[in-house]
Design brief:
The chain contains 6 helices and no strands. The chain has 183 residues and is mainly alpha-helical.
Length: 183
Amino acid sequence: MSIPNIITLARILLVPFIVWAIASGQMEVAFGIFVVAGVSDAIDGFLAKRFNMASELGALLDPLADKALLVSIYVALGIWGAFPRWIVILVVSRDIMIVGAVIVSWLFGKPIPMKPLMVSKLNTVAQVALAALVLAALGFGFRPWPYEAILMACVAVLTLLSVGLYLVEWVRHMSTIEPSSAE
């Protein structure tokens, strides 16, 4: 267990606290936890790269922590009414589709290499920015308009592009499977 992996696990453990903070209307607390999670993500990434502490476990845990945090925030803010349902459904469905595709490829004995596309990195940045803006606006009482609408449009477009590109890559990958003959 390396220090970056411990930091990543701590970030995963922050998820229920941020959901609790949003559910109980403690948006300043939720925003604070979100900032701590973001800083911890930067620190564990820096330590892993700078001090050669990258590991296979970390490569799996880090995106899991990011997705657990973002999906939880989007669902909680959707339930709270701060996000429209369609954006929550879009963000969550994309992640479910990607995880489902990875599981199917494993089941067929043809695991797909996990390499994030640039559009997915941009999508994550847009999702983080939107969540941060909305949490900050709710916590500190300011109107996020028009930035909220702009970021929401970016999230929608990038999410659709990302899932489309992953789907194309997955279909290409899976199309190399030989059909089994029924004898």
